[in-house]
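#lab-general

N.A. 3:47 PM
ok so I finally got the sequence cleaned up, no stray characters, all 109 residues accounted for. can someone with queue access submit it? mine expired

B.Y. 3:52 PM
send it over

N.A. 3:53 PM
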Amino acid sequence: MIDNEPDPGYPRTPEAAEDFLNTLTYDDTATLPPLPPATDRIEHGMVATSFKWTPEMRDRVRRKAAEHGVTPSILIRQYIEMGLLSEQSERMIPLADAVRALTSLPHSA
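B.Y. 4:20 PM
back already:
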């Protein structure tokens, strides 16, 4: 069962939210966290491999990669890594089962 109630520490009324926001302080001198690596840096050191697939599958992968904001190569590597990890028998449950369960959950707004 999913509990949609906010944690007790979160404001529950507009007034409580305003009070909370008024207590926030901002530090313009704080260092920013590092940006994630650019695609060309991720691709550095990779080896090229070719395989055959249908044009329809290629197009699906391209669309899905665009939805995730990554290149098709990165998406394919992520999918292959998930598949390989799911083959590890020492895990308590197969990763594929966990991924299947998580992907079946409704997306939150």
